[in-house]
Amino acid sequence: MGTNLDVKGVLLDIDGTLQDANEAIVGARDAVRQLRSAGLPLRFLTNTSRFSRARVMEVLHSYGIGADLDEVYTASVGASLWLQGRGVRRAAVCVPEQAMVDFPGQLLDEEHPEVVLVGDLGHEWTFTRLNQVFRWLLSGAELVAIHRNRYWRTEHGLTLDAGPFVAALEYATGQSAQTIGKPSPEFFETAVRSMGLDTSDVVMVGDDLSTDVAGAHAAGARAVLVRTGKFREEDLAASRALPDFVIDSIRDLPALLSSWIYSSNPVDRT
To answer: Is 92 helix (H, G, I), strand (E, B) or coil?
Structure first.
């Protein structure tokens, strides 16, 4: 494919965009292959905090989607970089054990943390664990959300994500959490810089209006919404975060990039 757009790189969401309920979305592998054939650098952006960066790469490979480790940007990786950039010395991290590998071991401290990073613990969230975080925060620790997605789709249906637990802790403590993953502009900018590009050079493709679309626009990138994953038509109708284009699925992306002509009413172009 060739592109008429001045798009020099593509950011791809994973859950709901490339895969859904532990199955590859039809056409995802071919779409990624066509983007690579066009010479477009790719970054795979995900707010997951359940899995390590290496595990996310392995999952992509299992779907036939080739990805190098340095092309995968998880919210946990962003949080780890944030900790190190801020010079934090003691942090408590609420993610499953398999995701802890992405955090520097020397910073982990559940006795007197300066910062508490809250991710998606899933079934590991218990009253005891949530109350322990609450007490750390009352003792002066800073609340940081690895991400604050409200829900995600699993093979069992829509499932609570980290966001509701972050909101509960904000309500209980009066703190406002800083968010590290999508929709934080810094998360997008970190991934784009790794491609040697500016955010205005790239397009973000995802299924979430609040994280993928609003976050991309806040960072200065363009955004394409897919009608897969957690997409719901009523959310689009009610949202103020309108994407530049809406497509049925990732398989339609190469054709879109080949024919994209800017429209003042872009959401109507499907």
So the answer is: strand
